[in-house]
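Minutes, project huddle
Topic: does the predicted pose make sense with flavin mononucleotide bound?
PN asked that the exact inputs be recorded in the minutes so nobody has to dig through chat later. Recorded below.
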Amino acid sequence: MNISKIHAVYFSPCRSTAALTRAIADRAAEELKVPVEYYDFTLSKNRKNLTEFSSDELVIFGMPTYAGRIPNLILPIVQNAFQGNDALAVPVVTFGNRSYDNSLLELRNELEKKGFHTVAGGAFVSRHVFTDKVGAGRPDDADVAFVQDFAVKIAEKVSGLKEIPEPIAVPAKGHDKSNFVAASVDAKIGPYYTPLDEYGNPAMFLKATPVTDTQKCSRCSICARVCPMDAISTKDVTVMVGTCIKCQACVKRCPDKAKSFDDPAFLSHVKMLEENFSSPVEPEIYI
Ligand SMILES: Cc1cc2nc3c(=O)[nH]c(=O)nc-3n(C[C@H](O)[C@H](O)[C@H](O)COP(=O)(O)O)c2cc1C
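Predicted holo structure (tokens), as shared on screen:
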């Protein structure tokens, strides 16, 4: 199949998904000798218009895993802001070394429903944005090499395609490869993962929001400008004016290190992650 352009499309508050999605698109474009374009829909200002693709294009579509699925408040954007028009696509999810559960399956299905044809899929480990101790140092050199190899395989597969293939088979929760979900895009997606606390009980931190250390904060308002939900007031960054999805963009990108989460249930979940999910897990590709 002839491809005229590759797009890297991604939602990525803390930039790992952006880096991995772009690396795959760049390497595949190099192999296919076609141009590459990036489309970052993390910020609300970049989601105002419908973005359409065409049948001679390949879209590498990257999303982070939140609670084992694609972020629930961003799902409507995936559903409404893009139209595949028979473009080929590769769903790519990142996850913070716990599990991607059903995020890859969910993204595959959403892309298929929007007129994309999925030809491969991948789930890649990156540091968990809640703590540097989980997924520490990921993606590392081995991950980068793995991603490059995946991109080469995508390019080979796409070049050899004579007709539109069936949707790529990816596993459902548990990553049980013997239990691949059949190609139906209407496959039921499992529930969201319930975060646990250090004692194994549900950790309820849905209402948690970042706190501001006013001694450190220089009022630069970068936190408000990097928030994908426009949840932080630009006039007074200590005030929340929208829904926080706990993506950690404000925490990670504050130059004064003035933002943090002090919610006890959130911190207990982080402790649980550090105690149980620090051993490195492997990325997975489906092609
Ligand atoms: C609200 C929230 C929920 C998350 N849930 C999971 C999860 O269920 N499993 C997992 O392994 N990582 C989880 N993570 C970690 C992210 O998937 C991971 O850090 C991702 O690479 C962040 O992408 P970004 O750097 O592009 O923002 C979660 C992160 C956030 C913010």
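Observations noted during the meeting:
- Residues 206 and 245 are 8 Å apart (CA to CA).
- The pocket of flavin mononucleotide is lined by residues 12-17, 64-68, 94-99, 126, 128-129, 193, 246-248 (CB under 6 Å).
No decisions taken; revisit at the next huddle.
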